[in-house]
């Protein structure tokens, strides 16, 4: 009897954590093939945690409000990019530059998030596909603004930013002036040799920032609005009956997420050092969501733990697979395709598992009824 | 209890209400003193919920032209415009359906959207919702409410993990925790509870009453009324038929008052007792159905050839679950035998293949293709099940819909059932409720079934259409010898139409009587086992 | 008059705007030194190339599976058929038939699996379909690299392994349909081959929807509970519709390749569902209702805008904003359909 | 007025706090703009003519702007220095004809434009900073046609699959 329960527990644990488990196995298999040193990997992973965790954290709040994975975080990324474009054009550098970029991005992100939230309220029950389409639609608007509006309509005249033809932003912008300015502001090097080569860089300020956001999210869960969001996420009708303003709460969840995503994008870009004006944002949503899901989150439940576990696992895969592919088959491209496949596959798997699980829970009540009848028959 | 000379807490004077000219409440008068427990009994549609809607100032009432008469609280007339208004005067209600969040604890649910907050500086910028929730205070207030109710309830338990009874207690505690609650309306709070839980609840009601909180207790379990109430109001057809002292009445008296009406049915419509064949067409054994809100637990039933069998009972007791379960629309188990051969459950196709048909109570959800034409609606099942209305082309290689055949049959039923429509091409969603119901019937008739389930055929349609629908059913039964099982909440309707009537209580058959039996007998069956004991 | 108003209403404001815009483009075109005849033939050519992929939306919409964002799966079946046909080395129009033949079993198998999956996730088909499409494209990207193709027309020259990103259909089935029964008057030319090919399949779908099974499929999409209560096996109908959509997707891409002249592998099919989805929506379909007329009108309007705006804009203001406008219009259209209240809960 | 609200309800303490916050943030943004803005100062040691008076290039000079490190200048040398903020100090050490080192008084100056040029000879000659410093207008370099074509961004609807993250 006892063993039975145990095996059931194990099965439950496996089926609830199938995605992270697959990833751990995958990374463990790729690690020896890729042949990277643990030190190199650790350094890379830390860099990437610093780069991405803000973005991934921004996804938590809409999940809390029951709106699923916010594919519309791309909108926040766009806002962040616009902020970065401005400060590069004005040549405002370093941490003040990034701060200014964040300040510029905020109202844009609020506006975009508000639009997205309103739209999602009109498409209840299919928020995810709608937020996904919003990100495509807004991508068009973003390109219109950046490619044709910047220069003649929005006064930006920096040669560094604007194309030689006089309007439109360049394809890639070098962010030398703000590159790693947060990371390098205060960082510690571990395990480096005497010459300061190799080793692991620990950027203290970035860590503080990310820790701060985690604290904000934890605090947020404890506020009235956080409680309202959890309520709305569970049952909109009950929440409405209790007098919670459901629509407003949902819009707020998206706005907050979009604003955080904008800040996340500013941090991400400063870490990357280059801005791909027309590409950087478009895949950010997909990768962030994949990373979160890899960490064991689902459409309706996600925690800070999932974020960090997810980033670590996802990026291990990201770094390892091209090299493993190269060493194994002689083509790095296979590894690259593989990681694209895995990113998409993970989202598909997580979505399907979530749907099936919800369905199974619904079917449970019939089972209990049949059971009670059987017991009655026996009695 | 409240023999002081103070003004009664609640008084209703000549309250009346009409919906589109149909009176649903007539001249209702009663008073309720502080700390009194008032039992409110009556069949479905007797006007109980309308009365409560008026008390709470629900939107339905305002939107349909308000009400007549006066509602007085502490002797002063009030007109609430919303339940929030009522709440301010200390009146709260616990509804039959739980309004709880499964992922929250009891405490969180009790104080939902009224959580005590720690003021934070940030609220100056981000508004009040940036205040953090004071968990300790929340816990304290929740426990206070639970203690006031006098039940055992763990404030930290998640609602999802609670037994039903605790959910009910959580609901009630929520109402109590609202400040200055003086009158609590409980709508069938014990319907979903086990006996033990129900006892606890009754104890809690006495507790509240002792603390000076008045309670209006709506229930179908009459024994509970005797146990806990000071007085009882019996409603029927929108009137208070009698106000009884709970100490001096009995279950059978209440049951009689509830259903016993002198309806002057025209002779032509009256069902004369006719001989019914002994041949059993359909037998149902140990049927259970998982239909939310209409759970069937253990039904055993035999339907005789050529009869109209009525299935009645109060809402939520499971009568609707029976046809839905047999026809495979909800998960079901048990044994169903039609003409000697067993019908597999959970398989709508098999039922239809063996010449069963079903007119669902959920016209818009199950009964109709709202976006399609009447032709489609009427011909569709017959086409799919019996390959009717198909025309072979290319030497039988492909079979297309036979548009002219479909039109012919649709027109036939439009005429026969007097369906009001512009043409057979009109979309089903554009018809009125009564005509939609006729389309549903036509759909079933087109299948030419041997046995027809009709669920709530007259729900939500006007009187004229009602009579027509019932007449059509009766004629169908007489002229084609089709056995009909008719499920309805309206006992009178069943008595007009049926040969025998089965009453469902608590997911099981509590008795089957000939339609000519006096209505009190049905009333007693409806209120369940406790009634049987009382007899 | 009233009828006209209701007709206009049913046509819908966005469609009206798009039609008006397209008409305006054609009116302006002569003033911008654009040959209207050539533009028209361009639009018709694109119509012939793309219409079947738009048609592939119809069965799934009818059975209530929503918009087929998983079209890439069908396209992949088509690509497998195409590459296998070229691998045989048989040239000329026969290769087109071969490609159709080879892709059919793949389409049926993929469609069947895809349908089974969608049956388990009722209610969020569209999101999952999107990602099924993406994952399958990414998976096939790996496969294109390692599948043992040999034909020198397709394999990378220098490594001798892995398929090229684009493969020319020249010599195989390039313009097999385009050049049959084509008619040209001055600068205007029209290919009846493509149009007849599309008409054939449109007719088959139309005819299918008139059969018993087709009727059942429509009923499933219109009200699944009703269909179930009428004894229809919903899952079976849905799976069938998904297989049909997938197969039409395969046909659609083959038809596209014969006109376009290239087979695009790897990430090529990734986003091919979007234009098809927005085309049928522009044509007046909703998330759960679509007709052949929607397909025809939608494809003409969508392709008209795609081909006309760049030339007109370039000639008029010397700025090519057309691609950006296309993105906004086509995705905006999908967004509009998703946020409409009437569009059921799928 | 917003309906149902009196002026008192609208202009409560929260309103002012919010207004204050917005003002502070805008002020911060403005401050950051000026504080963080990077401008280029070209320190120029060419012979030049200012206000009709000509100055000859200095033979040797050691120049430090703020605390960015010493730089040595020979005649006809020009170096760009990236500076943050607007007010800066320049320290110049030079030598006279007899190779005696002369340490000039630190000169404080404000940058007039994003790109400015300061003339070393003029400063050494004692001209006040605001005269010695001018906006720098670079000669427009001809745009190469091939360059433009390469820079033309291709609109990509969905982004690059294989980008890093």
Report what the structure shows.
The complex is a heterotetramer of chains A (379), B (535), C (346) and D (165). Chain A has 15 helices and four strands. Chain A has 379 residues and is mainly α. The longest helix of chain A is centred in the C-terminal third of the chain and has 47 residues, at 332-378. The relative contact order of chain A is 0.17. Chain B is an alpha/beta fold and 535 residues long. Chain B is built from 20 helices and 24 strands. In chain B, the strands form six sheets. In chain B, strands 6-9-10-3-11-12 form a six-stranded mixed beta sheet, sandwiched between helices. The relative contact order of chain B is 0.10. Chain D folds into two domains: 1-36; 38-135, Immunoglobulin-like. In chain D, 27% of the residues lie in helices and 32% in strands. Chain D is built from five helices and eleven strands, in the order H-H-E-E-E-E-E-E-E-E-E-E-H-H-E-H. The longest helix of chain D has 24 residues, at 13-36. Chain D is elongated, with a radius of gyration of 25 Å. The two termini of chain D are 49 Å apart. At the C-D interface, helix 14 of C face loops of D.
How many independent structural domains of chain C? 1
CATH topology of chain C: ABC transporter involved in vitamin B12 uptake, BtuC
CATH architecture of chain C: Orthogonal Bundle
Q: Considering DSSP H and I runs of 4 or more, what fraction of the residues of chain D is helical?
A: 25-40%
Cα-atom Rg of chain C, whole angstroms?
20 Å
Task: Please tally the β strands of chain D and state the result.
Answer: 11
- CATH 2nd-level architecture of the largest domain in chain D: Sandwich
Whole-number mean pLDDT of chain D? 77
User: SSE string of chain C, helix = H, strand = E?
Assistant: HHHHHHHEEEHHHHEHHH
Assembly level: heterotetramer
Rough outline of chain C: globular
The number of helices of chain C is 14
CATH class placement of chain C: Mainly Alpha
- Report the biggest beta sheet of chain C as strand number plus sense, adding barrel if it closes: 2 strands, antiparallel
> What fold name stands as the CATH topology of the largest domain in chain D?
Immunoglobulin-like
Give the % helix of chain C: 55-70%
Quick summary:
By secondary structure, chain C is mainly α. Chain C contains 14 helices and four strands.
What is this structure's SSE topology?
The complex is a heterotetramer of chains A (379), B (535), C (346) and D (165).
Chain A: H1 2-16, H2 18-34, H3 38-57, H4 60-64, H5 73-90, H6 94-122, H7 127-149, E1 172-174, H8 181-185, E2 187-190, E3 200-203, H9 204-222, H10 224-234, H11 236-241, H12 246-272, E4 274-276, H13 284-294, H14 304-329, H15 332-378
Antiparallel strand pairs in A: 1-4, 2-3
Helix pairs in contact in A: 2-14, 3-9, 3-12, 3-14, 5-6, 5-7, 5-12, 6-7, 6-12, 10-12, 13-14, 13-15, 14-15
Chain B: E1 10-19, E2 22-32, E3 37-42, H1 48-56, H2 59-63, E4 68-73, E5 76-77, H3 83-88, E6 91-94, H4 106-110, E7 117-118, H5 123-126, E8 132-133, H6 135-149, H7 164-177, E9 183-187, H8 195-210, E10 214-218, H9 222-228, E11 231-236, E12 239-245, H10 251-259, E13 280-289, E14 296-304, E15 308-312, H11 321-326, E16 332-338, E17 341-342, H12 348-353, E18 356-359, H13 363-367, H14 374-386, E19 390-393, E20 398-401, H15 403-416, H16 433-446, E21 451-455, H17 463-480, E22 483-487, H18 491-497, E23 500-505, E24 508-514, H19 519-526, H20 529-534
Parallel strand pairs in B: 3-10, 3-11, 6-9, 9-10, 15-22, 15-23, 18-21, 21-22
Antiparallel strand pairs in B: 1-2, 1-4, 4-5, 7-8, 11-12, 13-14, 13-16, 16-17, 19-20, 23-24
Chain C: H1 2-11, H2 13-28, H3 36-55, H4 57-62, H5 71-88, H6 93-120, H7 125-146, E1 166-168, E2 182-185, E3 188-191, H8 192-208, H9 212-222, H10 224-229, H11 234-260, E4 262-264, H12 273-282, H13 292-317, H14 322-339
Antiparallel strand pairs in C: 1-4, 2-3
Helix pairs in contact in C: 2-13, 3-8, 3-11, 3-12, 3-13, 5-6, 5-7, 5-11, 6-11, 9-11, 12-13, 12-14, 13-14
């Amino acid at each position: 009897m006892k063993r039975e329960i145990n095996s059931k527990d194990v099965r439950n644990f496996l089926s609830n954590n199938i995605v992270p488990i697959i990833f751990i196995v995958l990374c463990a298999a790729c690690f020896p093939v890729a042949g990277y040193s643990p030190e190199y990997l650790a350094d890379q992973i830390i860099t990437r945690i610093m780069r991405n965790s803000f973005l991934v954290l921004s996804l938590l709040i809409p999940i809390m409000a029951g709106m699923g994975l916010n594919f519309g975080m791309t909108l926040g990324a766009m806002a962040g990019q616009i902020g970065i474009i401005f400060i590069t054009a004005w040549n405002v550098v370093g941490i003040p530059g990034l701060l200014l970029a964040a300040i510029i991005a905020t109202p844009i992100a609020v506006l975009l998030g508000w639009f997205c939230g309103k739209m999602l309220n009109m498409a209840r029950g299919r928020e995810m596909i709608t937020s996904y389409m919003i990100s495509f639609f807004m991508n068009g608007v973003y390109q219109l603004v950046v490619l044709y509006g910047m220069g003649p309509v929005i006064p930006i005249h920096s040669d560094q930013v604007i194309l030689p033809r006089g309007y439109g932003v360049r394809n890639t912008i070098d962010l030398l002036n703000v590159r790693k300015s947060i990371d390098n502001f205060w960082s510690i090097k571990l395990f480096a040799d005497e010459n300061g080569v190799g080793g692991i860089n620990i950027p203290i300020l970035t860590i503080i920032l990310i820790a701060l956001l985690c604290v904000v999210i934890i605090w947020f869960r404890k506020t009235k609005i956080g409680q309202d969001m959890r309520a709305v996420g569970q049952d909109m009708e009950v929440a409405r009956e209790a007098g919670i303003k459901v629509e407003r709460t949902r819009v707020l969840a998206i706005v907050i997420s979009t604003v955080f995503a904008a800040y996340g994008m500013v941090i991400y870009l400063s870490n990357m050092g280059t801005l791909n004006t027309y590409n950087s944002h478009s895949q950010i949503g997909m990768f962030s969501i994949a990373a979160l899901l890899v960490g064991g989150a689902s459409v309706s439940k996600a925690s800070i733990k999932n974020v960090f576990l997810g980033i670590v696992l996802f990026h291990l895969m990201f770094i390892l697979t091209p090299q493993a592919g190269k060493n194994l088959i002689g083509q790095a491209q296979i590894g690259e395709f593989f990681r694209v496949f895995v990113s998409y596959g993970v989202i598909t798997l997580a979505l399907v598992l979530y749907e099936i699980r919800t369905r199974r829970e619904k079917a449970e009540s019939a089972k209990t009824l049949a059971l009670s009848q059987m017991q009655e028959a026996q009695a | 209890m409240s023999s002081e000379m103070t003004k009664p807490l609640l008084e209703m004077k000549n309250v009346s209400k009409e919906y589109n000219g149909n009176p649903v409440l007539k001249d209702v008068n009663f008073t309720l003193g502080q700390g009194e427990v008032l039992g409110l009994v009556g069949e479905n549609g007797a006007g109980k919920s309308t009365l409560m809607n008026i008390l709470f100032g629900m939107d339905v009432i305002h939107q349909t032209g308000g009400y007549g008469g006066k509602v007085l609280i502490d002797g002063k007339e009030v007109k609430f415009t919303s339940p929030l208004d009522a709440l301010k005067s200390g009146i709260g209600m616990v509804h039959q359906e739980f309004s709880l969040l499964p992922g929250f604890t009891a405490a969180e649910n009790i104080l939902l959207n009224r959580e005590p907050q720690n003021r934070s500086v940030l609220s100056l910028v981000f508004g009040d919702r940036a205040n953090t929730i004071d968990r300790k205070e929340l816990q304290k207030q929740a426990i206070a409410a639970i203690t006031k109710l006098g039940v055992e309830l763990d404030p930290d338990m998640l609602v999802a993990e609670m037994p039903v009874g605790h959910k009910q207690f959580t609901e009630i505690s929520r109402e109590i925790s609202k400040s200055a609650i003086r009158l609590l309306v409980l709508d069938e709070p014990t319907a979903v509870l086990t006996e033990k839980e129900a006892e606890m609840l009754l104890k809690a009601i006495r507790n509240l009453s002792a603390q000076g909180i008045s309670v209006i207790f709506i229930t179908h379990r009459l024994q509970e009324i005797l146990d806990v109430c000071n007085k009882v109001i019996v409603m029927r057809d929108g009137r208070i038929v009698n106000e009884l002292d709970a100490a001096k009445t009995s279950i059978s008296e209440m049951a009689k008052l509830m259903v016993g009406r002198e309806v002057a049915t025209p002779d032509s419509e009256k069902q004369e007792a006719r001989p019914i064949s002994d041949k059993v067409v359909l037998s149902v054994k140990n049927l259970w159905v998982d239909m939310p809100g209409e759970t069937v637990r253990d039904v055993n039933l035999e339907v005789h050839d050529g009869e109209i069998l009525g299935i009645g009972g109060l809402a939520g007791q499971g009568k609707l679950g029976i046809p839905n379960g047999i026809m495979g629309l909800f998960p079901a188990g048990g044994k169903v035998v039609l003409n000697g051969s067993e019908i597999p459950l959970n398989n709508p196709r098999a039922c239809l293949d063996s010449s069963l048909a079903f007119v669902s109570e959920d016209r818009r959800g199950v009964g109709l293709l709202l976006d399609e034409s009447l032709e489609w609606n009427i011909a569709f099942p017959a086409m799919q099940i019996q390959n009717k209305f198909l025309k072979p082309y290319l030497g039988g290689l492909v079979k297309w819909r036979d548009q002219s055949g479909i039109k012919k049959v649709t027109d036939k039923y439009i005429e026969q059932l007097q369906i009001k429509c512009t043409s057979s091409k009109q979309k089903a969603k554009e018809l009125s409720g009564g005509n939609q119901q006729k389309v549903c019937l036509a759909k079933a008739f087109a299948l030419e079934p041997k046995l027809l389930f009709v669920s709530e055929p007259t729900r939500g349609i006007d009187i004229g259409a009602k009579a027509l629908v019932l007449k059509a059913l009766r004629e169908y039964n007489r002229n084609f010898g089709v056995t009909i099982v008719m499920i309805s909440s309206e006992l009178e309707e069943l008595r007009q139409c049926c040969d025998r009537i089965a009453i469902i209580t608590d997911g099981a058959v509590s008795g089957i009587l000939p339609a000519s039996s006096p209505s009190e007998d049905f009333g007693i069956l409806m209120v369940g086992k406790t009634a049987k004991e009382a007899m | 008059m009233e009828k006209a108003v209701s007709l206009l209403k049913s046509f819908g404001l966005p469609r009206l705007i798009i039609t008006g815009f397209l008409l305006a483009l054609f009116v302006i075109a002569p003033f911008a030194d654009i040959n209207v005849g050539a533009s028209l033939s361009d639009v018709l050519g694109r119509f012939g190339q793309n219409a079947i992929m738009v048609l592939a939306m119809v069965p799934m919409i009818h059975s209530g599976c929503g918009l087929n964002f998983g079209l890439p799966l069908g396209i992949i079946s088509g690509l497998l058929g195409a590459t296998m046909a070229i691998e045989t080395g048989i040239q000329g129009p026969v290769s087109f038939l071969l490609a159709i033949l080879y892709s059919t079993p793949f389409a049926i198998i993929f469609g069947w699996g895809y349908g089974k999956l969608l049956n388990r996730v009722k209610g969020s088909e569209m999101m999952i379909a999107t990602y099924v499409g993406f994952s399958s494209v990414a998976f096939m990207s790996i496969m294109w690299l390692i599948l043992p193709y040999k034909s020198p027309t397709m394999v990378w020259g220098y490594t001798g392994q892995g398929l090229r990103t684009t493969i020319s259909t020249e010599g195989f089935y390039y313009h097999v349909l385009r050049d049959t029964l084509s008619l040209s008057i001055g600068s205007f030319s029209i290919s009846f081959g493509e149009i007849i090919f599309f008409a054939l399949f449109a007719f088959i779908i139309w005819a299918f929807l008139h059969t018993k099974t087709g009727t059942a499929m429509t009923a499933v999409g219109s009200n699944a509970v009703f269909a179930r209560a009428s004894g229809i096996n919903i899952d079976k109908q849905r799976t069938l519709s998904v297989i049909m959509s997938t197969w039409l997707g395969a046909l659609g891409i083959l038809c596209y390749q014969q006109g376009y002249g290239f087979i695009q592998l790897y990430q090529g099919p990734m986003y091919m569902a979007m234009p098809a989805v927005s085309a049928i929506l522009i044509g007046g379909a909703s998330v759960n209702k679509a007709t052949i007329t929607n397909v025809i009108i939608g494809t003409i309007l969508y392709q008209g805008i795609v081909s006309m705006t760049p030339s007109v804009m370039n000639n008029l203001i010397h700025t090519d904003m057309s691609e950006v406008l296309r993105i906004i219009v086509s995705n905006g259209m999908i967004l509009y359909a998703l946020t409409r209240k009437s569009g059921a809960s799928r | 007025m917003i309906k149902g609200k009196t002026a008192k309800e609208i202009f409560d303490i929260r309103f002012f706090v919010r207004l204050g916050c917005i003002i502070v943030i805008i002020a911060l943004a403005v401050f950051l703009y000026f504080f963080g803005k990077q401008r280029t100062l070209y320190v120029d040691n060419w012979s030049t003519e200012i206000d009709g008076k000509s100055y000859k290039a200095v033979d040797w000079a050691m120049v430090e702007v703020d605390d960015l490190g010493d730089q040595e200048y020979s005649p006809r040398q020009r170096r760009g220095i990236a500076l943050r903020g607007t007010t800066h100090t320049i320290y110049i050490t030079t030598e006279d004809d007899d190779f005696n080192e002369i340490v000039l008084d630190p000169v404080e100056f404000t940058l007039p434009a994003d790109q400015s040029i300061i003339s070393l000879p003029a400063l050494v000659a004692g001209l006040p900073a605001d005269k010695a410093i001018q906006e720098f207008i670079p000669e427009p370099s001809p745009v190469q046609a091939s360059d433009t074509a390469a820079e033309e961004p291709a609109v990509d609807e969905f982004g690059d699959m294989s980008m890093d993250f």
